[in-house]
Amino acid sequence: MDAGLADAATADPTHPRLPEPHHLLAYHLSLQGEMAIERFRLVDGDVNALPWRYRGSGATAHYRKIRNSSAQAVATVD
Distance between CA 53 and CA 60 in Å, rounded? Predict the structure, then answer.
């Protein structure tokens, strides 16, 4: 995770594939109970990436569930 976060931080922000690691980082950070909301902010609205697209027609609902759970975790900390 640390290496992925470091790579994403130093990547060219205009690179067309940069959202992909942000999606994966958001998902895995949320599984670890860490604050993933910043990653979700970077890619919000785009669910056609891994790991969401594995859910097929349920991708949007799954993405929103994980994103909203991460947002709720931040709200309870504040």
Answer: 9
What six digits make up the tokens of 44?
Answer: 């919000």
Token look-up 């995770």 returns 1
C-beta of residue 54 within 8 angstroms of C-beta of residue 66: no
| CB atoms near residue 46 (< 10 Å) | 13
pLDDT-derived band at 78 (thresholds 50, 70, 90) equals: low
The pTM for the full model equals: 0.82
Distance of CA 17 to CAs 8, 12, 14, 21, 44, Å?
Answer: 11, 10, 9, 8, 15
* Alpha-carbon gap, residue 63 to 60, rounded angstroms: 5
